Amino acid sequence: MSTLTNPQEHEIIAIDVSFTRDMICLTLSDGREVKTPLEFYPLLAKATEAQLQNYRLIGDGSGIHWNDLDEDLSVESIVLGRKAYNYSKVG
Hints:
By secondary structure, the chain is α+β, with helices and mostly antiparallel strands.
C-alpha cells in the first residue's frame, strides 16, 4: 500500500518559465511541468512577448516577478489554478 505525502510538506518551486500563445508553462524543481491559461492572469494575457519574457524568479523560485508589468505571482497559485483578481473591474 502506498500513501501520498502531506502536500504542505514540500514547497512548490519553479526552475523555469515559458509561454505558448495562451498558456504559462512552469517547470518545477520536482520534475513536474504545469500549464495554466494566461486568461487567468489579465496582465499577462495582455502583455507583449517581450514583456512576458522579462521575468525573474523570486523567493528562491516560489514566485515570479515581471518588472515591466509590475506583476508578482506565486508559483503555488499558478499550480493550483488560482485566478488573479482583476482590479480594473472594481468600481
